[in-house]
Amino acid sequence: MASLESITQSLSGLSITPAATVSHTAASSPQAWREALEASSSAPKSFELIKTLVYKPKTAKTATPVPLVVIARENTDVISGSVAKKLNLKEPRLAAGDLLTEFFSLDKNSLSPLVLNAETFPKVITAVDSTIEESTSLFAVRAHATDATLFLSGRDLFAYLKRLETKDTILKIIDFEALKTEAPALAAATPAKKEKEDAKIEGSVQIAVGVKKEVDFATWYTSVLTKADMIDYYSVSGCYILKPWSYSIWEIIQDWFNSKIKEMGVQNAYFPMFVSQKVLEREKDHIEGFSPEVAWVTRAGSSDLEEPIAIRPTSETAMYPYYAKWIHSHRDLPLKLNQWNSVVRWEFKNPQPFLRTREFLWQEGHTAHLTKPEADAEVLEILDLYRRVYEELLAVPVIPGVKSEKEKFAGGLYTTTVEGFIPTSGRGIQAATSHCLGQNFSRPEMFNIFVEDPNDPTRQGKTYVWQNSWGLSTRTIGVMVMVHGDNQGLVLPPRVASVQVVIIPCGITVKTTDEGRKTINDKCEELASELKKAGVKAKADIRDGYTPGFKFNDWEQKGVPLRLEIGPADIAKQQTLSARRDTGVKSPLPLADITKSVPALLETIQEDMFKRAQDTYNSRLKEITNWDDVVPALDNKCVVVLPWCEEEACEDDIKERSGRSSEPQDERAPSAGAKSLCIPFDQSRWTPIEPGKTKCTACGKDAKRWTLFGRSY
Amino acid sequence: MASLESITQSLSGLSITPAATVSHTAASSPQAWREALEASSSAPKSFELIKTLVYKPKTAKTATPVPLVVIARENTDVISGSVAKKLNLKEPRLAAGDLLTEFFSLDKNSLSPLVLNAETFPKVITAVDSTIEESTSLFAVRAHATDATLFLSGRDLFAYLKRLETKDTILKIIDFEALKTEAPALAAATPAKKEKEDAKIEGSVQIAVGVKKEVDFATWYTSVLTKADMIDYYSVSGCYILKPWSYSIWEIIQDWFNSKIKEMGVQNAYFPMFVSQKVLEREKDHIEGFSPEVAWVTRAGSSDLEEPIAIRPTSETAMYPYYAKWIHSHRDLPLKLNQWNSVVRWEFKNPQPFLRTREFLWQEGHTAHLTKPEADAEVLEILDLYRRVYEELLAVPVIPGVKSEKEKFAGGLYTTTVEGFIPTSGRGIQAATSHCLGQNFSRPEMFNIFVEDPNDPTRQGKTYVWQNSWGLSTRTIGVMVMVHGDNQGLVLPPRVASVQVVIIPCGITVKTTDEGRKTINDKCEELASELKKAGVKAKADIRDGYTPGFKFNDWEQKGVPLRLEIGPADIAKQQTLSARRDTGVKSPLPLADITKSVPALLETIQEDMFKRAQDTYNSRLKEITNWDDVVPALDNKCVVVLPWCEEEACEDDIKERSGRSSEPQDERAPSAGAKSLCIPFDQSRWTPIEPGKTKCTACGKDAKRWTLFGRSY
């Protein structure tokens, strides 16, 4: 038996340092183990137990047994039959003590993943819970004894196991959640069980994403994103892979927005991702806003650069020296450029896919105008396009308004914004911003961008240009997921779905002939093709070896707005059974006018999704004039509008006072105090403010406008 | 008078170090000055003289004179009248000695830009030749004496002047080339001169880009790119701004290529730009190919990162760990992902816009297949799309083939390529590559990407996936410019032109009434709108204040394929005069069937451009079997096909022997020796190789296949 020291030493050879090592009272059951750890002052506050299960699959009596070692989270359901089936093993049974002694010289209560080493790993089959791989949570691992425990991050534990792989022995990574839904499909080889599958699966997928949205929103969110195949975690922390299922949404947004801005005379361009230090630091307020998050390149190959070069956090200072060079005359105005690119903001806060990532995709528009009214008009025109991206494409309601002085873009004149709302967390979210920079970047001490004043007859006068910048990022996708997703997974609004309709063959049983199966599959393909011709993004899922139930679940997780089922009875009746993803409502549709009914139904889904989200936003937006009602409203997952004095000290005070909630704080939400989100343009929704009479809810001074406050992302 | 030491000192305060300081025999004229410098052993080999001209504009007699100081290259035509007009100054005259003494205490032969300092700069108007701003060439500058000279780069000189700017006194940057063509327009205010303008301008724009393609190709190239408004230089060396005029070409290529690969089942995705060191360095051969050029981020905000993070030079190693994770079964194959992104290769060689830049835009496709034949087929399918991008969109002929072992992609199995040709330099250019990576990245010691072999009934067998990667970059645009551009500037093939047809009002004279002018302008707009409806990218240029000649030149520089002129006579005859950019051929087109004739003419232009380029390529591709003919052919700006043994030693030898040309070498062309460019797929173009009989032109061993060799980019 290895000592704690020898384990720690072998880990350190792999550059793995346990977060903690704890000696405690001997504990054999998981329950006792957890209690012993919770009682220890040296154990981390939050952890999960790791279970290490050893099975003996059935083999010929004369063969050397090859045990199956399963390493999983405490709460992961390990269904040994499904795991074995997946790995082509037969009839697994929990191993008896003598086998454990033979292989690991340990009893089952002292076992840990660390019993696997260069010697033992090749002799067994090792299966690890896939959710451990990328987890940064801490896991309790037996230190080969019942009275000593090591704490390792999921990543470290996974890395340890991965390093044991040899050419012949590979670590098996098992998605136990997926296995649950696959299980019946895997079992389908046994014909007798087959007929009742659909019903069974429908039940078993109720918690397909593994965790309920209302219970653990943060975990639900990342679970939906990975199960719906939208993102994957990446080896550089804070960065995520956008898989086709999410990137296609971005492409749809790009196409729509490109067509609109091109109509406005905006042209696309591309500026380099690098910015020299000197240029980046030219505007003081601006750089103060960004400098803590700037990533610096200091080395190329093996040479140190003479001076470090920044990766753009945004491109104002990178672009505007050239605006100064290009703009000579009022005839060069307006200059309207946009680029689709990625920017880097190396945040040290908890990252969240789409919402806070170190690299993200966006568009940034940068325009220069002769006059302020022209710049002002464009700011609003762009903001309205942003509103439409959210409301018309993503079916997400937003409130357009202007930011307070405190919350405006660093270095700009004023910032307009569309503010979204995440009902589950009750938090506001800045959805997109359109800034008027005024003449702050064009003035002579800054980038010195001017033209001769065309209205000055002496031609000696200079006019410094009026500038705007505006940006919309892949945050759009995150907001959409949070607003519409449910406990089955993603729910996509039809207009941004790369598959709007999935057609699934049903009613194929063991008795179905090959010909009968072909008839059904062909009908599905034919229907898909007919719908495609009518402009619907349709797909027939005629994959072999998967049950309809598995497919239903698969496409539900991925949020496809509409499912059409085709079985023998449907063909006979010349109809198809439709099932809406957003409501679950099923109804038969005659095939005769399917190219009309399906597009109409998709439009209805789009509208219904928006309307439901808007009703929710409205019902959770509280008009409040009495301070005592503010914190309870926030705690009740609402945002509030207050008549507000518009003074920064009052804003700070509101944040401070509203942060004193008794509710536990979610670490992943950066702000527990309420910030001002925007001063809505449409003030008519609320009781008119009477100047000199209506008072600021927070400080009692004269109120100026209704202002939206909320806890936020 | 300042001494040489004090000048050097004041420069050093600005971190400017002269490349050389030279004492020489006193020389007053430019000619004598140049001779004195050329005779000095301490002067740089190559330099240009700077001329410093001081003018006294007309002012009221009682006013303090404000001299105009013009700083220009020796060969720049300074037309004082045009400069003055541009700057709103009147009747400039070269200043007399007493004014020079008064302002600078120097005579005209000792004057240099360095006489401008914090004290003198605000008292004068300073105009600098715009071509100096970004120039890295060395310029000779008088050290305030006729017998001493400093050498400064254009950038340093410009930076020196720029630093003198104050809130009230701005450095005027003059594009003297543009001024020449603008001059008549500026002069147009004088009605008497107006009628003969067109003819004059047509003559004066013969060298619109300032330097002839055949004489100084490298300068011509960058000049075309900047004058056509395709790029601008950027403050980080080796990076360029892609302005809308070039980025729109990239957008057209993207749209076309996206539609083709999506038909093939390829999906777009986005992987992060960062790669951890460990992951990047996983494939040894691969990283050896890239590591000298990798840019490393080591700092974020003010914190050093724990370990440096690379910016992707290409994404194989960043993506494939996830391919291993995503691919579990043959049902997950093929996996076909593509991304449109930028990559960074921090080259230390001379950068060239589009051809060799530190950051560039491209697409990279990465696919995984079950079988080698499937991977092989895709490699060629993609290569053919690349061929079509060049031939069908850019009208640039290419030769498809396979790279030699030496020239293949680092870490791959084999590389296919389309090879282009730049007639002016006689060099080949790798246009795009499609690689089969084989199982080199999927094998167990690498990324371990495998599936159960579906053909193995025991389900124990593993098949490592077959992978491809393929990329096409913005190099496309550079090749197109080099192949088609001429001494008037850019020539765009119609299919990639964002403006295919420009319509210019003509025949407006001083006698034209406002109504007459409106009729003509309206007709131009009407025609543009009619053509747009017919799918032609048409634009009417009805800008006021510019002569038709100026507009002709402007759009010719920018390469618009077709110009239509509309004047009173055209309207009367219901026709328009068309002028082709590629040939200059003019012909009248009846307006009646303009929506048919213009699209047809554009197609003809597209075909003619391709055919001419292909004829040139063919005529400069020499079939050679005698070594003695190789170097003369290369020196004669040809590429050669040789029967070749396909041995690497022989390839090295060819490069070595063919590098011994007597021709002066162009620093910007990285390889003076001939490399193997590709083994063309179509071998039937040349005399059949008889195995065992046909010998390698270079080494005399048995030849295998005809292989394309050439000096290259």
TrEMBL record, chains A, B:
<dbReference type="InterPro" id="IPR017449">
    <property type="entry name" value="Pro-tRNA_synth_II"/>
</dbReference>
<dbReference type="GO" id="GO:0017101">
    <property type="term" value="C:aminoacyl-tRNA synthetase multienzyme complex"/>
</dbReference>
<dbReference type="InterPro" id="IPR002316">
    <property type="entry name" value="Pro-tRNA-ligase_IIa"/>
</dbReference>
<feature type="region of interest" description="Disordered">
    <location>
        <begin position="653"/>
        <end position="676"/>
    </location>
</feature>
<dbReference type="Pfam" id="PF04073">
    <property type="entry name" value="tRNA_edit"/>
</dbReference>
<keyword id="KW-0648">Protein biosynthesis</keyword>
<keyword id="KW-0067">ATP-binding</keyword>
<dbReference type="GO" id="GO:0002161">
    <property type="term" value="F:aminoacyl-tRNA deacylase activity"/>
</dbReference>
<keyword id="KW-0436">Ligase</keyword>
<keyword id="KW-0547">Nucleotide-binding</keyword>
<dbReference type="InterPro" id="IPR036754">
    <property type="entry name" value="YbaK/aa-tRNA-synt-asso_dom_sf"/>
</dbReference>
<dbReference type="InterPro" id="IPR004154">
    <property type="entry name" value="Anticodon-bd"/>
</dbReference>
<feature type="compositionally biased region" description="Basic and acidic residues">
    <location>
        <begin position="653"/>
        <end position="669"/>
    </location>
</feature>
<dbReference type="Pfam" id="PF00587">
    <property type="entry name" value="tRNA-synt_2b"/>
</dbReference>
<dbReference type="InterPro" id="IPR016061">
    <property type="entry name" value="Pro-tRNA_ligase_II_C"/>
</dbReference>
<dbReference type="InterPro" id="IPR002314">
    <property type="entry name" value="aa-tRNA-synt_IIb"/>
</dbReference>
<dbReference type="InterPro" id="IPR004499">
    <property type="entry name" value="Pro-tRNA-ligase_IIa_arc-type"/>
</dbReference>
<dbReference type="InterPro" id="IPR006195">
    <property type="entry name" value="aa-tRNA-synth_II"/>
</dbReference>
<dbReference type="GO" id="GO:0004827">
    <property type="term" value="F:proline-tRNA ligase activity"/>
</dbReference>
<dbReference type="GO" id="GO:0005524">
    <property type="term" value="F:ATP binding"/>
</dbReference>
<dbReference type="InterPro" id="IPR036621">
    <property type="entry name" value="Anticodon-bd_dom_sf"/>
</dbReference>
<dbReference type="InterPro" id="IPR007214">
    <property type="entry name" value="YbaK/aa-tRNA-synth-assoc-dom"/>
</dbReference>
<dbReference type="GO" id="GO:0005737">
    <property type="term" value="C:cytoplasm"/>
</dbReference>
<dbReference type="Pfam" id="PF03129">
    <property type="entry name" value="HGTP_anticodon"/>
</dbReference>
<dbReference type="InterPro" id="IPR033721">
    <property type="entry name" value="ProRS_core_arch_euk"/>
</dbReference>
<dbReference type="GO" id="GO:0006433">
    <property type="term" value="P:prolyl-tRNA aminoacylation"/>
</dbReference>
<dbReference type="InterPro" id="IPR045864">
    <property type="entry name" value="aa-tRNA-synth_II/BPL/LPL"/>
</dbReference>
<feature type="domain" description="Aminoacyl-transfer RNA synthetases class-II family profile">
    <location>
        <begin position="247"/>
        <end position="493"/>
    </location>
</feature>
<dbReference type="Pfam" id="PF09180">
    <property type="entry name" value="ProRS-C_1"/>
</dbReference>
<protein>
    <recommendedName>
        <fullName>proline--tRNA ligase</fullName>
        <ecNumber>6.1.1.15</ecNumber>
    </recommendedName>
</protein>
<comment type="similarity">
    <text>Belongs to the class-II aminoacyl-tRNA synthetase family.</text>
</comment>
<keyword id="KW-0030">Aminoacyl-tRNA synthetase</keyword>
